[in-house]
Structure formats: C-alpha cells, structure tokens
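Hi F.,

I've been meaning to write this up properly since the lab meeting, where we talked about keeping a consistent format for the predictions we share between groups. The idea is simple: the sequence comes first, exactly as it goes in, then the structure tokens exactly as they come out, then a line or two of notes. No screenshots and no reformatting. I'm using this chain as the first example so we have something concrete to point to.
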Amino acid sequence: MLQLFRLLSRLPLRLLHAFGWLAGWLTYAASPTYRRRFQSNVAIAGLPWGQARPAIAEAGRMIAELPWLWLRPASEPLGDAVRWEGAELIDAALARGQGLILLTPHLGCFEICAQAYAERFAEVKPITVLFRPARQAWLRRIVDDSRGRPGLDTAPATLAGVRQMIRALRRGQTIGLLPDQVPPEGLGVWAPVFGRPAYTMTLASRLVQQTGAALLLIWGERLPAGRGYTVHVLPAPAIAPDATPESAAAAVNSAMEQLINIAPGQYLWGYHRYKHPRGLDIGAAPVKES
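Output, unedited:
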C-alpha cells in the first residue's frame, strides 16, 4: 500500500481529482449506510439537495489528493497551487504575539491549511496541529512523515498533545484544530449543530480562555479541474473569559455552520457528526502545563 501511495503522489493533481470523482460516487453507490448518513445530515442542515450533491465527488477527491499532499517532498513548495484570501487577519494576529488558534471544519481540503500556513508564516511563527494517529502502522508512518514539515509540528490527541499546544500558544505560536471532530466522552459537551445536539469538543474555547490566544476560522477551498486551492481566513466568534463550556461550544458550532453554508458542496456530509462519544482514552485530568 505504501508503494501505491508513492506512485499516486507523482500523478498530477488534476488526474488524482478525476480518480477521486469516480471513487466518491462509487462509495456513495456501494454503501447504503454511508448514503443514508450523508442524506440525513444534509436534511438536518435544511439544505436543498442540489447544493450538497457535489460533496459526493468532493469526498472522493479529498481521499485521492492525500498521496500528493502527504508524500510531496518537503523541498517542493505548494507555490502557485495555493491562493490566499484574508491572510492579513493572520498577519495582524501574529503581530500581537499572543498565540493564534485556527479552526476549520471537515470542509474542502483541510489538510492544505496547515501546509499553506507553514510555507507562508512559519518564519514568523510555526504551527502545531492536533491529529489522531492512524491505527494502521503503514499509514501512521506516512502521516507522521508527511505532517512533520518545516514549520509544521504535530500533537497527538492525548493529554500530552494538549500540553504541547498550550506551550506553543504561550510562546506566541499557532495551533490548528478541527472542532467538529467528536471527542471522547468526558472531553466535550452537547451543543447544537444545525439545530440537533452533537457532542462537541471544548478544547478550543478552553485554550482561548487559558492562554488569551486569538481565534480565527480557516478553510481550504478545492478549485475545479485540479487548479489547486484557495485558503480562506475569516474572523471567529469571541470567546469570553467567563463563557461556559456549553455557550462557547455553541458559538464555535455556529461558526462552523457558517463556513459549511459558504460551500456545502465541499463539506464531508458523510462524517458521523451526531454519534455518541467513544469511551475516554486520553485521560480526564485538567489541562495544565507540566
């Protein structure tokens, strides 16, 4: 499988996205469970089917582009494959030196955001992204190697990883989170997503309250015909120092809804957002720097 990934990484992005279009539709047709969840999530969001339908192919493109994203040599920059809108918001946040948290849902190419940030801003402040290690050894090796790029560090979804991110913020650096991931039981609260309760991580708001970090929204728009990506940066909701976990989670979820509504055709509607959390596996101790 590793050899296949290496082979695919050498193909043009346009060709990978074409394969991904086919894979997305084949998966949708072959899996009744996936298809029902996809349709149910769109219905809960109250969106016309035509607006969400392109996301079937985009889910396949998301998978197909991973070899190119993960195995592209660190010496080979993204260059013209990435355009920016709103980068001045990051410039302003970094200039204040208080640490920066970037939030993105499962929308578009979220993998591109950290790489694009590292290439543009790492000389000022590097970025650390939270990730859940892959279960398969071969895939874990690929992911670990790919995400350890110059100016881009990774933190595992463990208590040690959270402490690592706190240290980065207190040094005035940047971290990246996907706040629409379902956290383990005990590490989140129930808050509405498109009007339905969903178990939601409280990590982002806790980090803002503990470190005084700035908060911004970011997402990577996948351009048609393999032309690359546009990274969009937008303002985020304010998290008050005395905000409750429930109110802060609701504010973050509302911000994620706004991003999704910008490009529903690129959201991962098949993600099991409303599932019950799994058992706690990273410890329930209070988040404190060691």
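Notes:
The beta strands are 82-85, 100-103, 127-131, 152-156, 174-177, 188-193, 196-201, 214-222, 229-235.
The two ends are 39 Å apart (CA to CA).

If this format works for you, I'll send the rest the same way.

G.
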